[in-house]
Amino acid sequence: MKKILMIALILGVASAWAAQSQKPPAPAPPQTQTPAQSAASKDFLIGLEDVLSVFVWREPDLSVKEVTVRPDGKITIPLINDIQAAGLTVDQLQERITEQLKDFVASPSVTVVVVKVMSQKVSIVGEVGQPGVYPLGGPMTVLELLARAGGFREYAKKKNITIVRQESGQSVRYKFNYKDVSEGKNLQQNIALKNGDIIIVP
Predict the structure, then answer these.
(1) Is 163 helix (H, G, I), strand (E, B) or coil?
(2) What is the pLDDT of residues 82-122, one digit of tens each?
(3) What span, in angstroms and rounded, lies between the C-alpha atoms of 158 and 202?
(4) Residues contacting residue 127 through CB under 8 Å, at least 6 positions apart
(5) What are the structural domains of the chain?
């Protein structure tokens, strides 16, 4: 009897172990991007005041955790000193740094990351709490910028907001009715802002 119980116990443990081993692996957490990473696509051009990180594999003394693109469009890297960054894509800058490091390092492997996008900006003027220029560090809608600017002043004309955008060398105007959008109407007015947009709140 004891032998039968022992065999049944062993079989039960083995069955449970087999069932556990057949469970599908837990799904990986979804990959997320920071606003800076989202903005820094293959076509994104590095601009003035953008903050970059330069990593040289196996060369910690040559890596730079954070470096800001200066008004002259350049950044400073150990051994290389000044190198042009503004107007280049991330891949182009990586290639330039890699090429120049070959004089000092055998087969350098360089990774450039945009930590903060400060070169792309939008402006908001008129009857808001905090008018001014705001960095476009990632996707931002008209409604989000209004919130960031502290909302409306007392006499703001919320139905007559205008977005001014330069397209193909011409000034294009878009209308934004805050009352409609806040009530869930005409939500297409709440457009995603682009670099250089100016929001006018009369």
Answers:
(1) strand
(2) 999 999 999 999 999 999 999 999 999 999 999 999 999 99
(3) 8
(4) 152, 153, 155, 156, 157, 201, 202
(5) 35-116 (3.30.1950.10), 121-201 (3.10.560.10)
